[in-house]
Design goal:
binds zinc ion
Length: about 260
């Protein structure tokens, strides 16, 4: 069986992959992965993401932005420098910046920089409007605040991904009201206690889902707890096919179509 899929969220630039990145990519290709999208999380990782994407230009595509957990007192300086990189890259017609990301709100560990997170997220949403690029969105314990900001720009945003969705039906429906956006689904789907399979089948059409690893995190069962990598998405595809009562080929075909729609890829 020849399955083909895209990993829309993978921190392949991380030091976890420094020793064996070639082998990880080889296994990804063998498993049927046809492309990997890399999100930056801060200024330093904008550079490492671009470096890895330059090394594997036929396979890896960059997304640039400031992650909410990296927003601190110096967020304005960080954003100014990241925007300079984006502008410079954007003027180079050979270069394809895929999305702004990962950006969003995260109040799970701390609300210390709550106000700064709101301001930094909104500024990056404005970049997405200005450049007409999709958003790769990270959100934890902050959905209402996030939705309130996005609503102000909904008409002008080209689309995006609510990455690592793990919410309930009501939360899914609230996010899907942004009709050019999709949910990023990864390893959590396979966890024993996860309600995600039922939630997705009840509230999320298959044409509103894209696949992701969030590697090195969130490895699916039976690799749970280990370093995640794109090849392991096969376990997510199997579980999604069960949840929707469709074939694995259908999961791959539809999610790849969704990626192409959202990312103009
Ligand atoms: Zn991530």
């Amino acid at each position: 069986m020849n399955l083909q899929f895209i990993d829309t969220h993978c921190h392949l630039d991380g030091e976890e992959f420094a020793a064996d990145r070639d082998a990880v990519l080889q296994r990804a290709r063998e498993a049927g992965c046809t492309a990997i999208f890399l999100p930056a999380i801060d200024l330093a990782s904008c550079h490492t993401v671009l470096d890895v994407c330059a090394q594997y230009p036929d396979f890896c595509r960059p997304m640039l932005g400031l992650h909410p957990e990296e927003v601190r007192a110096d967020w304005r300086d960080q954003l100014a420098e990241i925007k300079q990189i984006i502008n410079f890259k954007f003027q180079n017609s050979n270069f394809k910046l895929l999305a702004i990301g990962e950006v969003g709100l995260d109040y799970y560990w701390s609300r210390e920089f709550e106000q700064e997170q709101l301001l930094a997220f909104e500024q990056q949403v404005r970049w997405a409007v200005e450049l007409q690029l999709p958003l790769m969105i990270h959100c934890r314990k902050a959905q209402n605040e996030l939705v309130a900001i996005l609503k102000r720009y909904a008409d002008d945003l080209p689309g995006g991904v609510f990455h690592c969705f793990t919410g309930n039906e009501q939360e899914a429906r609230q996010l899907l009201e942004f009709d050019r956006f999709v949910l990023g689904i990864g390893g959590v789907l396979t966890f024993k206690k996860s309600h995600l399979p039922e939630t997705l089948a009840a509230a999320v059409p298959l044409d509103r889902i894209v696949l992701e690893t969030d590697a090195p995190y969130m490895a699916p069962v039976p690799m749970r707890g280990q370093r995640n990598e794109s090849a392991y998405i096969r376990h997510v595809i199997t579980r999604l096919a069960e949840a929707y009562g469709v074939s694995e080929e259908q999961v791959c075909r539809q999610t790849t179509e969704n990626v192409k729609r959202v990312f103009a890829f």
